[in-house]
Design a protein that fits this description.
Length: 241
């Protein structure tokens, strides 16, 4: 294996390792969000898009070159094994074809996993933000409920005081009671708004989770296909040897 294809294969193994780490169920998205928010990532953020596009261009060039090599050796007339003039020509041609196919798989899966890795990081970041927002909205809803309950208890206490007070203070207490009722209505309205926002956040989190599950299933299928292709390529190499 030449130096460039060894580098591409190493890059492919590194991508598979990162995707497996990102799919670990015991590491929550909030933990990844904290890791992604380190200051070192902010320093290299300006170069990230350029590096991402550069890697894509390089992998596309290598992928097209591998396709050209496969077509080249596949279109070459087959040399019989029993040829007396060139006894090793058949084995040499099959070795060339196997290497070109191997390079095609390596570059193709490297390009695909690079795009999957970028999308996976984006989904994890969005999911972490939605879960954080959900926790904040839930806390706000609990605080609003407690405040509404407190005002209702205060209202009941004032009603009891109104019954025991004379006519003189009745008007003032009614005015205060009216203000408390208005405040209670405002709090209830805020509670409904907060509950609606919480429901929307929960729906978004469920959607992100479904997308993440689909992406994990697609990755498992592609990884299994990649392993099957590697087994087929290994068997083909053994046969050619």
């Amino acid at each position: 294996m030449s130096l460039q294809w060894a580098a591409v294969a190493t890059f492919l193994y590194a991508e598979i390792g990162l995707i497996l780490i990102f799919c670990l169920p015991f590491i929550p998205p909030q933990r990844w969000q904290k890791i992604f928010s380190f200051s070192v990532w902010g320093k290299i953020a300006s170069f990230w898009n350029k590096a991402f596009l550069t890697v894509i261009v390089l992998l596309i060039v290598l992928f097209l070159d591998a396709i050209r090599e496969v077509r080249k050796y596949s279109a070459t007339p087959v040399i019989e094994k029993t040829s007396t003039s060139k006894p090793n020509a058949y084995e040499h041609m099959q070795m060339k074809l196997f290497r070109s196919q191997r390079n095609l798989y390596i570059s193709g899966f490297s390009l695909f996993f690079w795009l999957v890795l970028r999308r996976l990081v984006t989904l994890i970041t969005q999911l972490a933000k939605e879960m954080t927002q959900k926790a904040v909205l839930k806390k706000q809803a609990e605080n609003t409920s407690e405040a509404a309950k407190k005002f209702m208890e205060e209202n009941e206490r004032l009603k009891q005081m109104l019954k025991s007070c004379g006519k003189e203070e009745e008007n003032d207490l009614e005015e205060e009671n009216r203000k408390l009722l208005e405040e209670q209505e405002k709090l209830q309205m805020e509670l409904r708004k907060t509950s609606d926002a919480l429901s929307k956040a929960q729906t978004d989190v469920i959607t992100m989770k479904v997308q993440s599950d689909r992406l994990s299933k697609e990755y498992d299928r592609l990884l299994k296909e990649h392993l099957d292709l590697q087994d087929i390529s290994g068997k083909g190499r053994k046969k050619s040897l």
